[in-house]
Design goal:
This protein is an alpha/beta fold and about 425 residues long. The protein has 17 helices and twelve strands.
Length: about 425
Amino acid sequence: MRETKNRDTLCIHAGYTPGNGEPRVLPIVQSTTYTYDNSETMGNLFDLKESGFFYTRLGNPTLDAVEQKIAALEGGVGALLTASGQAASLMAIHNICHSGDHVVASSAIYGGTFNLLYKTMAEMGIETTFVSPDVTEEELNAAFRENTKCVFAETLSNPSLVVTDLEMFARVAHAHGVPVIVDNTFPTPINCRPFEFGVDIVTHSTTKYMDGHATQVGGVIVDSGNFDWRNGKFPMFTQPDESYHGIVYADSFGKAAYITKARTHLMRDIGAQAAPMNAFLLNLGLETLALRMERHCANALAVARYLQQHPKVSWVNYPGLPDNPYYERAKKYMPNGTCGVVSFGVKGGRQAAMNFMDHLEMASIVTHVADLRTCVLHPASTTHRQMSDEQLREAGVSPDLVRFSVGIENIEDILSDLEQALEKA
């Protein structure tokens, strides 16, 4: 196929080009192992001297095709599918952070990611300083330490919908010689490609918009290939890895050093690999991602405008609204739309919000967000319930916040469901 950079075409064609007489649809290679004619080849594969598939934990033809597609969509040099978005966040950070290291992270991130950094990685000896998503450049600089190894943020935060100033975060991080890792789940590469603004590593929960049908749990790490791992702060890329007979990742894999190490070291030892069947389902979702994101954004903007004028709604948060504090930043980083999630408050507080949700008929109360069906959740009592009141405030999650994930149904039906539920709230 002729090379293209158009993301809607890449959604369909990138990663897999069938040959003469081969399946038109990406096949599911449901096999753990791969056969070779001699033991020397197998040994070279284990030593990373040759490329190929030898065990599905480290690589599989179905996974490989989907990884190539996502890397093309983000504009990266390589990608690694994982068993969940949480696994992607863990491995993306742990690939460069060890016990005794430090992370600077935005406080406006998904509750599960916050807990990963606040508790689990702290127990691993990796400390995190959380900063306001609206931090000034001077304040962000002040959060760095000698042992800081990365900055973590979300392009568009879940569920507070804060738009991160990617260029400023990248500029400060690079001045300190460390990379920026950004979770790009909500905008997807259709609406934002963080690498174009200086970000170095991108993660996704592919469970969300990329799949779009709520059929698989997965994650992905994408490497821009742009960060200089030879700057003296990351010896894991410049010193021999004795578990691979002394291979030096930066020497052997160049721009793909980071993503190769994530696969051959962390995936080998942690084993949080994606299943071939899940990768197949994810690919089906990716094929319609561009179309769905256009409809999600159009519907969400209509919902946000409707809620703004409703007498039972106390506030509405959607970056696509001109009076939103992140409107101009969203136009810079996501000029074609943000996502399908709208946050708002119902007059009467937490109980009124719960009553509203209980009376929805088409929209479902689920522990999910960002698929083609409209769904709703109360984050303070579910996804973020482990956080203290102060931590909730820092994350932009108020007690009355309703996260309304607008699907791709007919907008009149979505608005009708909202109307009848708000009347009963």
